[in-house]
Amino acid sequence: MNKTSNNVIKKYNVIGDDFYYHHTFTKSSGEESYHAPEAHTQHEVLYLVKGEVSYIIEGETYDVKEGDMIFVAPNEIHTLKINGKLDYERIVLLFDISILEGIMRSLDTTLDTFRFSGKNRFHVIGKRDVREGGLDKMLLSITEGDEGDKYKKLDIMSKLISFVIAIDKTAARLKDNFTRPTSSDKLVTAVTAYIDSHIGEEIRLDALADSLFVSKSTLCHRFSSYMNMTPGRYVTVKKMHRALELLRGGLPSAQVAREVGYDNYTSFFYNYKKVMGTSPLASRIEASAQMPEGDGEI
Question: Residue 168's CB: how many other CB atoms inside 10 A?
Fold first, then answer.
């Protein structure tokens, strides 16, 4: 894996992990480089200012060029390959849609784009449609302003509302005409689909391989080569992100462990802390503290 030097032009964090953006430039190195696989609990938007990248999202590859905008839903595991022959500049925005849900409920409205799941999700809007929808200008406006300004957070939230509405309108206009995957691996997508639909069970790779009529070694090799992570690691990350959703919903930690297929709570606790960086109880307490009064309790 080739190491690259990143120059952070600007970054900003609002309300803990509910909102974060960074604008980063990477000088061309002449060689391909890879980003480690990851998943977020928030929606991710990446606007490619310069360069070319291949975004690999759960078994499907999207070749993305300058001016395109990439969308990754919460808990989707993704990695990317960077064309090192070109400069790579991007603006990345992470936000938790729940910070807007109170407003949407009070207005009796929804943003259907952010309710999509599974194969109904869209991942890339091309440069022409990004510009037609004004998405590039809106995203850039979010990153503007003086960080010392006392109105900065309120200004960002108001701009975020306009931005997600514009995304929703663009998605509704495009309907089924989104940018399609450039390529995919049918075995890898079959593995990810199986794992997603059996997330509450113990998932054994040998049994999974048998169900797909391939050897365990073939499954592991194909999956690791495509996703840049082992299928075992993929299973663990998926389960822990599902566990976080359940903890935020108020379920006790022991019950959550069983819901994601763990009979041994110690193993669940170890994996949760390793993936999420905190304990299940801490996640549950944090979620409860952020709930409006009357919406839930520990």
Answer: 18
